[in-house]
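Input/output pair, single chain:
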Amino acid sequence: MDFSQRMGLLPASKVIQSDSIDMDLRNTVWNILSECYWNTFYPDFSGHKILRGSNFEEFSRLLYSKFYKTTLDDLPWGWQTILDQLKKEIISGVWHRTYSLLEFIIENAPNGAEVHEYCINMCNEAFTRENSAYRFVAGKLTEITSPEEIEAIETAISGTSKYAGVTTHLQTSLTLLTDRQNPDYRNSIKESISAVESLAKKLVGDDKATLGQALKILETKHNLHGSLKSAFLTLYGYTSDASGIRHALLDNATAPTKADARFMLICCSAFINFAIDSIED
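Output:
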């Protein structure tokens, strides 16, 4: 806490920012983007930053065609015009569009993976400091604030690179969960459990095996604890029974919530990490 907070003249901590971004956080995000990206623009001809031929030309084309969804005829010749527009969005845009733009910038701006990782770490530190409800997880902003939960999901996605199907299911689940305008919790849950199914089949070497069969083999060959097997089969049953996630939503059925989808993604990610660690020990 600074002097004003210690004296009780300012609140010691902010209310969690879940559907808003205050000016402190907006300014911090802009400064991070400037440090990581905007300050690296080249070439600069005596203060005239011409877009064509610059390191940000391709990024600007993607920005206008894929994010703003406008014609490339409207692309300005000067970088400063684009930069002013980006700053306006970050500093005063609708909060969820600001987050969408931040995701887009980090995904598409030049400078390479190392700079992107540094930028994400800086943003997550700022989100923590300013009490934002969001964090970057595997390149996507999501409403998961526990470091342990973030680590479980990121470890599962990065640790399944040799199981392409598992990675795809987890990334799709995360994308459906974190879509701030049109979240799809039902299909996010489907993708989470499909990731577990996909991994289990690969681990036992049988693409036709059911999850129950795969878990039984993991139990006998890889010392999967019986209680953990039973717990996961019960959870799997929730998604597969007559009124479960995998079947058409009945008129009297309760639609899955964000909490349901979030829990399933974290749970499935943790199980995937456990299964991989078990066979590699």
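The beta strands are 135-137, 140-142. Confidence is low (pLDDT under 50) at residues 247-251.
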